[in-house]
Amino acid sequence: MKIIKCLFVFSILIPTIYAQEQIKLGTHNSLTYLPPQWYFRWLNFTSKCQNLTIEEQYDFGVRYFDFRIKFTRKGKVRAGHGIMTYKADFDSIYNFLNKKGDCYINIVLENFPWQKDKKDSLFVRYVKEIIQKYPQIRFVGGEKKRPWTQLIPLGNTGVKACFEFYERDKKKFPRPRYYARKKNEQYWKEVDTVAFSLFDFIELNSNKEISTRKK
What we know:
215 residues, TIM Barrel
């Protein structure tokens, strides 16, 4: 009798677990959970798109990460989004994802129009180094912003935006958390097994349970 009960339970759980594993989840501006430079923190609500750390995002089911890269005047690597700059322990993050062996990273140069091509060569060299150092991560993208330009051909995979665009719609003030609270519930209904769904604040109004700390 116990064997029959166990088989019945497994017959219910296994298809559910398998379906969950096939759902493709991604995060937009994945590193913006980090604190920015102190003098811009009052504006960080316009740039912050995630609460969860990379480890927490992975545990949540994310397998597609969006890394925006900046370089200081001395050539040090930073994460960024717009005017915000974030110090990230990239070696630790890359090592974590490399060991998992099932992740994509969309790598982008966060560029300003007045910088033109000053950071292009640094970015290309950096991307080549991390591709060689972390072979179990699939790096995609290889573009720079403003204007969007391909700097190194990395290919891509299917993605769909489950977040709001601001540069394309001048009427919208950038408030990622506000729009995530307002629209994520609908976006979650569109998640599928075909393309990675990229979220801002992926845990907000989701149909998945997760315990998160307030940030």
